[in-house]
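Exercise 7. Predict the joint structure of the components listed below.
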Amino acid sequence: MGRNANPVDPVPLSRSSRSTLGPTAAAMITGDTLFATIARTICEADCLPRKEFFEAWEVARRVRRRFRGGPVVELAAGHGLLSAILILLDDTTPHATCIDPREPQSHQRVMAVLERRWPRLEGRVHFEQGRLEDTVVPPGALLISVHACGVLTDRVLDLAIQARCRVAVLPCCHAMDLCDSSGLEAWMDGPMAVDATRVARLRAADFTVRCATIPAEITPYNRLIMGQPAER
Ligand SMILES: C[S@@+](CC[C@H](N)C(=O)[O-])C[C@H]1O[C@@H](n2cnc3c(N)ncnc32)[C@H](O)[C@@H]1O
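Solution:
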């Protein structure tokens, strides 16, 4: 259960574990930082695998260093915790829409505990059951997607390029038979080639791109691509 012996770690839990954040974990979380408070609050929902909390937090804080304001559209959202954290980190974001063909039960449970702790979240995170390919992107949006499988990540980039809006993706499994790798596999591993091609594609579409990573101890799929369209 313990992640390491660091006594000042407010959340001393394995960051890659799929075990549920629940009451046992809550008892180990110390301090009043936003990070620790969100973690303890999510424990009340008792439904989310730990790694998904850490992924959402690490992505949200990196994205918020670059992109603030405007509506959030979270694609392939699953539980949608990322949307809520993005609003908690930037109250100038009016609302977020989570899009996924399937609404997991965890979404309602996560939002219920978060709204109880932060009433200002009430009514600001909506779930829409649907395919991301059909999404109508509102003006000024930030499109964001964590672990949209295979080519779904490319469909997120299609939407961003078409709508010329800010985008952040943390790609997942790379379908090597479907994803474009620009033939770079002779020089680098296939998934890296696919992500490098994604960056090149955004740059070719006149986006400024920033590459980052979240800690590999949380997930091996840890490359974060953030793109902002140039003004035209
Ligand atoms: C690996 S999960 C990631 C979920 C969440 N973003 C996370 O990090 O926990 C991939 C998600 O993509 C959703 N999905 C599958 N096809 C989709 C589509 N066409 N449009 C939007 N979401 C889709 C699935 O229902 C699933 O929730």
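Discussion. The longest helix spans residues 50-66.
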